[in-house]
Write a structure and sequence with these properties.
Blueprint: H1 10-25, E1 28-33, E2 42-45, E3 62-67, H2 70-81, E4 85-89, H3 93-108, E5 112-116, H4 130-138, E6 142-148, E7 154-156, E8 164-166, E9 170-176, H5 187-203, H6 205-214, H7 217-221
Parallel strand pairs: 1-9, 2-5, 2-6, 3-4, 3-5
Antiparallel strand pairs: 6-9, 7-8
Length: about 220
């Protein structure tokens, strides 16, 4: 069976995907709620909410870890076109070490990092080791992020991670948790804190969205 995605057509597919997303970008309005006043941090989110990186401020300073797969090459190409810094890696031992070293170097250079902590294949809503190692090695704080919209054009797709994406005009809120510092915490303690914070942001998403509407955050953004 011929793969729909292969090395020969990746550039073409990436170009088409980018054009489609550029159209969606014109109809997508992301406001930030409780964004921390930090020069740099390690943003963490569930794999389902990976598109929220589009609303994180200071895009040229943000490194995104993307898998070495062909699918990942499409995502990486689109992210680079949007102005993000891209690091490639895999979940295998050798690939994980390489990508971790790349991200640590980026943190040492004063940049920020974004990681989907339960990706790319799950388990669903279980924090993997990558962000924990980065926080412990660098001392840079972790900032959990969740996004949400009450509008019907904000949809959850039928994928393993329940991917969230706007499809049409949509006002979305990026909701930031308080910074988490590794300090002397064990990896398990750190993972549990990240998980509980992300789940709590999701639990309170409607409350935060209501406050954002009252504060007219999208009007201020314009």
């Amino acid at each position: 069976m011929v793969r729909l995605i292969n090395r020969n057509n990746v550039p073409t597919i990436a170009s088409v995907v980018y054009r489609i997303l550029k159209v969606q970008e014109c109809m997508t309005f992301i406001a930030n709620y409780n964004h921390p006043a930090l020069e740099q941090c390690i943003y963490v989110m569930w794999h389902a909410n990976q598109f929220l990186v589009h609303g994180i401020p200071n895009r040229p300073n943000l490194n995104i870890l993307i898998s070495n797969s062909l699918d990942g090459q499409i995502v990486a190409t689109v992210c680079e076109k949007w102005g993000f810094k891209v690091k490639r890696g895999s979940s295998g031992n050798k690939g994980a070490v390489s990508s971790t070293l790349q991200l640590i170097n980026s943190l040492k250079e004063g940049q920020s990092v974004a990681i989907m902590v339960d990706g790319p294949r799950g388990p669903f809503h279980k924090v993997k080791k990558g962000a924990l190692v980065l926080a412990k090695e660098s001392g840079i704080p972790i900032v959990p992020v969740h996004w949400y919209s009450e509008q019907k054009t904000f949809r959850r797709l039928p994928s393993w991670d329940k991917m969230a994406s706007p499809i049409g005009p949509c006002k979305i809120l990026n909701i930031y948790g308080e910074p988490i510092y590794a300090n002397d915490k064990t990896e398990q303690e750190l993972a549990e804190e990240i998980e509980s914070t992300l789940l709590n942001l999701e639990k309170r998403e409607k409350e935060f969205y209501k406050k954002a509407v009252e504060q007219k955050l999208w009007s201020k953004k314009k």
